[in-house]
Amino acid sequence: MKDILTAPFMVEMIRTVTEMYRHGWDERNGGNVSLLLDKSEADAYLEENGVIRTIPAGFSCPELAGRYFLVTGTGKYFKNVQYAPDVNLGLVRLDDTGENAELLWGFTDGGKFTSEFPAHMMSHAARLTIDPHNRVVMHCHPANLLAMTYVHSLDEREFTRTLWQMCTECIVVFPDGVNVLPWMLCGTSEIGIATAGKMQTARLVVWSQHGIYGAGKDLDETFGLIETAEKAAEIYMKIAHLPLVNTITDEQLHLLEERFGVRAREGYLH
Ligand code: 2HA
Ligand code: ZN
Q: Among residues 34, 129, 111, which one has the least CA distance to residue 73?
């Protein structure tokens, strides 16, 4: 059996959450990440039949029965993951009912997966129906996106168009746009269902006055997605109170679509 701390998925997870912390997106125990693993990918690093504990998921996600996830722990600080990955991360398999998580590695202090596990699992299930290559769901609290939800309309088309207008690359990185949920109580199945619903049409979902969810095929891509949206929100927060003299026009956004072979969300451009 190989040392799981040397597994590429583990190394990449530790690097990513460390970088998220460094970006200021994950104060204290803020944020959570889940990475879907192939059985073969995980098996090489695990004991056979080595279920350490069975933890009720608190909801049912039969679409993901038998799937493996590396996931951050509830109450854990991203700041500390690199120093004690086995305490702060866990590798779980959803059982055949999709109602329990079998702990296969990690959470060695008796801990468990993130309080946002429902939103993560339901979002994975939703994204996989649209993109079978989706592997990552990532949640964090980037300051500028959060700030924007206090001063900008929460209309999804308007919110998306503003972000696209803030940096040239935005429409190329997230042509599907950004969906927005109103403030809701976090950590519940209700916000999980609502997030998964929004994930049907976009890989970014803003939780107003809280943070953002991103989804993607790997950790780099998902990190980059949030990074790009957050950069655009930062520009917006720098200029929103100033007289607007120039912008990126819809005509220019159409040129970007053509040049980079992307299609903007239907009905979002003039
Ligand atoms: O505490 O970010 O949304 C982790 C969170 C909850
Ligand atoms: Zn949060």
A: 111
148 Cα to the center of ligand 1, angstroms: 19
Active-site residue list = 116
Q: Which amino acid is at 201?
A: T
Nearest ligand, CA of residue 114? 1
pLDDT per residue as tens digits for the range 212-270: 999 999 999 999 999 999 999 999 999 999 999 999 999 999 999 999 999 999 999 99
Q: Which tokens belong to 140?
A: 């964090």
Are residues 35 and 9 in contact, defined by beta-carbon separation less than 8 angstroms? yes
| Residue 48 confidence (pLDDT) above 90 | no
Mutate to test the pocket of ligand 1, among 71, 186, 191 (most ligand atoms within 8 A of CB): 186
CB crowding 54-64: b at 16 or more within 10 Å, else e? ebebbbbbeeb
Angle at 93 between CA 92 and CA 94, to 5 degrees: 120
Choose which residue among 21, 72, 74, 115 to substitute to test ligand 1 binding: the one with the highest number of ligand atoms within 8 A of its C-beta: 115
